Structures are given as C-alpha cells and as structure tokens.
Amino acid sequence: LGPGLLLVAASFAAFRLLNRALERLVPPPPSARRNRWKWRNIWTSLAHSVLSGGGALAGFCLYPELPEDVANTHPPGAHSLVAVSVGYFLEDFVDMLCNQKLRQSWELLFHHSVVIVCFGIALLLHQYVGFALVALLVEINSIFLHLRQILLMANLEHTTCYRLNSVVNLGTYVVFRIATLAWMTRWLFLNRQNVPVATYTVSAVGMAIMTPMNVILLYRLLRSDFFK
After folding, report:
1. Alpha-carbon dihedral angle through residues 20, 173, 165, 101, given to the nearest 10 degrees
2. How far apart are CA 199 and CA 41, in angstroms?
3. What is the full DSSP assignment across the chain?
4. In this predicted model, what pLDDT tens digit does every residue of 186-211 receive, in sequence order?
C-alpha cells in the first residue's frame, strides 16, 4: 500500500510539473493563446495516454495469457502503471476544477471520479490490476482524440493530417474503446459469482456509466468529422 500511494503522489507531482512546463516546451499557436490552460491540459493528457496506453499494450503483447485471469495476475510493472494513471487522473481532476467552469467539465470530472475509484480499488486490494490494465487500452484511442483537439486548437481542421487522424481516431475508437468496454462488461457478467459484491457493484456501475458516455462521444465524433 505504501509504495503504491507514494507512486500516486509522485505521479501527481510529475504531471503537475509537466503541465506547468509545457507552455515553454510546446508554445501555443496564435489561435490557442486565448486558452493557454486548455493547450497545456491537452498536451499533458496526450503524454499520459502515450505512457499508459503504450504500457498497457506492451503488457498484453508480452503476456498474451493475461486475459485468462485479469483478477489475480498481472505483468510486472502493471501495478505501477495503474498507480501512475491514478496520479494523472487526480492531477487532471484538480486542473479542470481550478481552471474550467463546472458546466463545461462535469462530464470529464465524473469520468475521472469513476476511474479513480475503480483503479483505487485495484491498487488497495492488489487484485483486478489486470482488469485495470485492460481499461488502460482505451488510452490508445485517447492519443488520437487528444491529437484531434490539438489540431482543432491550431486551426488545422482542413488539413490532410487532420483527416488522416480522424480516420485513425475512428478505427482505434471502435477497437480500443468500444470493443474493450464490451469485453470488460462481458467479463464482469461471466465472473459475477467470483467477484466480491462490493467490487462487482462498483465495477458494474462504472461500466454502466462509461458505456453510454462513450457511445455519445462516438456519435459526436461521427457527426463532426464524417457527417458534417
């Protein structure tokens, strides 16, 4: 428990420092200078998505037997990766709370709250870390979602790069977000007898919240990028 919480705190501090440094590392274009906070926030989120999504994908590539028992087994480093992600989601929660109006950010704040609770259970129990690693596969798609936001803020929505990113974004959305959530829901249903009631309830509620949120986001993406 001690090292896990320490890593969460270190991750929170590291992403906070990165957020502060990003305006110098990646200066905002003229079109994004009116919203410098959002520019920094998106780049920070992109850094987390590359780290966590890449780490989760590497774990499943190196340990293909992992899906057979995501409750009790996980590859080396998986617990640390989940702790780092909890630190990031806490940092992003605080960042949005301090810099954005609640009516603009409530969906993401709600999403982050669910993730922090579910990942926190995995950290505290040292169980279901593999299940949390499955959830982090979603971050592979988040890479392209964040790139999309960056391109929009830079007024590059009419470029070939934006159109290419839109196609890759849609493909990874279906594979790593919709299919991943469907697999997690199916696993919970098939293993409901083996999961403690409290853990099952929290996970089921989390999936019940995440699934419609992601379906709505898919609809918004299709309407904006393909059926405008």
Report:
1. -40
2. 31
3. -HHHHHHHHHHHHHHHHHHHHHHHHSPPPGGGGGGHHHHHHHHHHHHHHHHHHHHHHHHHHH-TTGGGGTTT---TTHHHHHHHHHHHHHHHHHHHHHHS-HHHHHHHHHHHHHHHHHHHHHHHHT-SHHHHHHHHTHHHHHHHHHHHHHHHHTT-TTSHHHHHHHHHHHHHIIIIIIHHHHHHHHHHHHTTTTS-HHHHHHHHHHHHHHHHHHHHHHHHHHHHHT--
4. 999 998 888 888 888 888 888 888 88
Give tens-digit pLDDT for 114-157: 899 989 988 988 889 999 999 999 999 999 999 999 999 999 99
Average pLDDT over residues 74-79: 86
| Other CB atoms within 10 A of residue 150 CB | 20
pLDDT tens per residue, range 7-54: 999 999 999 999 999 888 999 999 988 899 999 999 999 999 999 999
Structure confidence at residue 69 (pLDDT):
87
Domain ranges of the chain: 3-227
User: CB atoms < 10 A from the CB of 74, how many?
Assistant: 24
